[in-house]
Amino acid sequence: MTKTAFRLDTSRTAHTLRALADQHRHTSLRELFAADARRHERFSCRHDQLLLDYSKQRIDTQVFAQLLALAEEAKLAEGIRALFAGAPLNNTEGRAVLHTAARLSPLTPAAARAEISATTERLQALVRSIHAGERLGSTGRPIRHVVHVGIGGSDLGPRLLQEAFAASLPLKLRVSYAANIDESELRAILADSTPAETLFVLASKSFSTAETLSNARLAQAWLAQSLGGDMPLGAHFVAISNNVAAAQAFGLSADNVFPMPEWVGGRFSVWSAIGLPLMLAFGCEVFEQFQAGGRAMDAHFAQTPLEHNLPVLLGLLGLWNTSFLDIGTQAILPYSHPLRSLPAYLQQLEMESNGKSVDRDGQALSWQTAPILFGGAGTVGQHAYHQLFYQGTRSVTLDFIVPVPAQASSAMQGLIGNALAQAAALMQGRTLDEARAELKAKGLNADEVERLAPHLVCPGNQPSNTLLMPEVSPYTAGQLLALYEHKVFVQGWLWGINSFDQYGVELGKNMARSLENDANTPSDSSTAALLAEVRQRWA
Ligand code: F6P
């Protein structure tokens, strides 16, 4: 078998980077800034209205040059070309990776775009007919509420964008989201819904996901209860799936099923028919602007030299932190209420894509891959988990994502000021002498100063990126999501892994199916005892 994976353990440049990492593990960012007045200028990159400042990373010009050399050695530019050309980069499943075609990037094969456009035309006709009150429920009532039923990649993207746009765009139709097999989520939505006016969108690439099918059956039963068991399913359900046959077997007619191609991975699918709830909520033009933002980022990624290429920079810096400096945690901190669900979205994108431990050829890796990603909206997180960033024992890398509106109220100025202050304070920290000086200035006596000062010390030196972007809009949200998608690609390429399968997830799904069967007994005593206890409580 021909080996195709780039390997960090045999790479010359990675060897150099490991030596540099030994020097830089404890490099003081304060000192780097003090020594170089042009550090921001040197380590920042502008594209369109985006400004990425990565000067608070533990790098110098030598590390930066070697990271770029690593990308050259790994032939990243060839990888990018192969991605857009539709090469079967998902080698375990023998599939192309063409979410860029789902947003109609002109760099992708025309046949793939044509497939997307054909579905888009049908989706637009559906959206128009619902907005015009022409598509009616089974009793002749107009559709006034859409419930999107899906999970993972079939849910997180539309859910994030629904929140992101709700703050600034008029709503054409109410849309709710149900993902969890815990039926209390869907029941709470149904409690506030009118059956005759509700349309369910069943979104599942495989159309075999337990959570989605369970919620679909609950929705069906709820409709049947009030509208009668013989009501036509088609009036209240549409489906988006790659498994059209399974959707039809569930009872949907062909004209109510919208295909998504197998070459659009679930966690990359928000650009495809999976975006239907957004079209329904805000209109097709809004969705087109979102796709246009993604396409603009595609062009930047495909055509910009590596050192000025935002996804490449994010990818290389993440690799440096994770695989060379051994920082295993990444916080995503959008200073924006509309983007509050971005961490959840990126969690799937990054952790499901790059949470791998063998290379593309099935050989074990000897380096760390995707970090544990978490986060939340600023400033809320400042009053919860930032304490650990300041005084905990771990290094964390932080991405501050800061939309800057053209005009800002004093509250918005406060929000943005907080983002910048957090990045600065976490980089600078507070020394023992500074702590003493602060306490003295407050009038504490010498004993009190000595007693308290150690508790005020903050080591600082937490590496961060700050991304300034314009106000959240469909276009800028498209740029942002495509930026992180391509970052994931860059990292997967350099780690030598297949970022586009997710076999691990199957293990837990199979185990759950097996436990549902009363005849099966778990092989370990812990699970067996817990299951026995649960069954006893249900008896
Ligand atoms: O559980 C993992 C996963 O397969 C994700 O990759 C996917 O986005 C999600 O489940 C939902 O899958 P589907 O769209 O097939 O229902």
What would your notes on this structure say?
With 539 residues, this protein is of the alpha/beta class. It has 3 domains: 12-73 and 304-428 and 462-501, Rossmann fold; 99-289, 3-Layer(aba) Sandwich (Rossmann fold), CATH 3.40.50.10490; 504-538. It is built from 22 helices and 11 strands. A 6-stranded mixed beta sheet has the order 1-2-11-10-8-9, sandwiched between helices. It has a 5-stranded parallel beta sheet with strand order 4-3-5-6-7, with helices on both faces. Strand 3, helix 8 and strand 4 (174-178) form a beta-alpha-beta unit. Helix 13 (284-303) packs parallel to helix 20 (474-495), helix 14 packs across helix 20 and helix 18 packs across helix 19 (446-456). The longest helix has 22 residues, at 110-131. It is globular and about 80 Å long. The mean pLDDT is 96. The site of 6-O-phosphono-beta-D-fructofuranose has 14 residues, from loops. 6-O-phosphono-beta-D-fructofuranose binds next to loops.
